[in-house]
Amino acid sequence: MAKEGIKAREVKRQKLVAKYADKRAALKAAGDYAALDKLPKNASPVRLHNRCKLTGRPKGYMRQFGISRVTFREMALDGKIPGVKKASW
User: By three-state DSSP, how is residue 63 classified?
Assistant: First the structure.
């Protein structure tokens, strides 16, 4: 489990990115890089990192499900993800 502070920091970044998205797009289109530089650093979408919705794990993230591979495996084996079953041949 990730620390609550780290998960909260990521949520805060997501809100900042959403808040400044229109302004960033307008400044980029105008080519005003001096004004872009004055925006908060965390307003840049590049600084976002995908994290597991349930545990906050930053690595092994599966975009299709929004969770980490470890959580995915546990849920799949418990039958909590419809249409997913362990392969055997």
Answer: coil
